Amino acid sequence: MVFLAGLAGLLLVLTVEARVGDSSESGFCTETKECLLYDLVCETDGYELRHYEPTKWVTTEQDSYFMEMALGTLFRRLFKYINGSNEAGVKINMTAPVIITMQEKQSMWKVTTYTMSFLLPSAHQSAPPKPTDDKVFFTDMPDMKVYVRSYGGWMMSLSSKIQSSLLSRELDGLGATYNKDFHYAVGYDSPMKILNRHNEVWYVAEGEPTCPAPEDPTSA
Q: Is this prediction's pTM over 0.70?
């Protein structure tokens, strides 16, 4: 019985760690040892549909009028956690990507809550050390499929809004169902990286995902 319990625990850890893996398996994670991995379901000219397995993240929130005003506070708070401000006093490797939850209904002159999350590395997916800052907490991302639009340059409020609008417009045109309350603004690069930056916009798919069949060039 003890052996079976231990085996079940090992399988659980392996399952949790399965999709946080070596960055060499991703073309986007060029500055971190580990990266969030996924299965590509389908791809069109305008978006990808990806499947992500459950993962654990460390998260914090900040109210602000603009994303740019909140980012510094959010990042510093999470960076302190992985740099040793946790009950175990251990340093935790940085991973990619960093995600920011963006509410769809935002008004320019009203305060909005911005949520930033760091992906926990595989070694800390099952039992991460508790934060010492009460504004830092853990979140569990469920098994999900997401529609993804990629773009380069710097991730800012305006660029994120433009890219999310382009993606939602295409999804609406196809009749796709997805969560319209929020989207994820996703960044893979540190501020030190100047060229070949990679950012994404994610919408979480709902119901049966939309994957248009590719056109048959012989049918013309």
A: yes
